[in-house]
Automatic annotation (TrEMBL):
<protein>
    <recommendedName>
        <fullName>Methyltransferase domain-containing protein</fullName>
    </recommendedName>
</protein>
<dbReference type="Pfam" id="PF13847">
    <property type="entry name" value="Methyltransf_31"/>
</dbReference>
<dbReference type="InterPro" id="IPR029063">
    <property type="entry name" value="SAM-dependent_MTases_sf"/>
</dbReference>
<feature type="domain" description="Methyltransferase">
    <location>
        <begin position="61"/>
        <end position="168"/>
    </location>
</feature>
<dbReference type="InterPro" id="IPR025714">
    <property type="entry name" value="Methyltranfer_dom"/>
</dbReference>
Amino acid sequence: MEVKEENREEYEIHGGFNQDTISAKYDELCRNYEEVYNSVGWPDPSQCAEKAVEHGYTQESEVLDMGCGTGLVVDYLKEKSGADTVKAIGVDASDGMIKKAEEKGTYTEIRNFLLCNLESFKTNHSDLIGRFDYVTASGLLAEGHATPEVFDEMIEALKVGGYAIFTSRIEYLEPLNYQKGMDERVESGKWEFIKKEEYEKYSKAKDCPLGRFKPVMSEVFVYRKL
Ligand SMILES: C[S@@+](CC[C@H](N)C(=O)[O-])C[C@H]1O[C@@H](n2cnc3c(N)ncnc32)[C@H](O)[C@@H]1O
């Protein structure tokens, strides 16, 4: 990976996330988001798309893409499935990221709101309840981004039999209570575990670690709503 000295700051400003400032932070990061992530190696959105295709995604499927950002999950869904169009609704907290995704014209609709508030989700977005074949969340389970409450929103948004497909660094699973959150919803019969797979991200930053970008192990998870 080659980083020009004048671009170094674009990598170092990533990090220090928290839920109160997440939208302002991504409004800043959006200007070079895809260039930065693609240059360090960002398999999360393609991992989510691949798992959706593996679990029966077709052009007719309805997708809710949580933390859609600039729209990479739908880019990969099109590439991996061969679909011309994708029936996807995006949700994101950052206007800047949403604008980038909208410029691609690949989502049916994108809504700006903060996830991880189940009551507000059910009250203000009742048309999203019980509607989707797939809920994807690439890069949303991360420090200062989403709490395990987002799993309830995924479950609410899915049809029975629909799939929740999301990624997380392995090192976040215990401290951020993501694993506990997944397990609790298995125990309460809300969803069943289908599979998980490990992969390395930020691999291209191996010889040149920058800010939070250095190779790290992640997992993609697949759960099915019961
Ligand atoms: C690392 S980016 C991932 C974007 C895209 N899914 C991808 O794979 O490239 C995380 C995105 O989640 C959004 N986000 C973070 N926390 C959020 C929350 N609580 N509610 C809604 N969006 C959130 C951010 O604005 C950002 O666009």
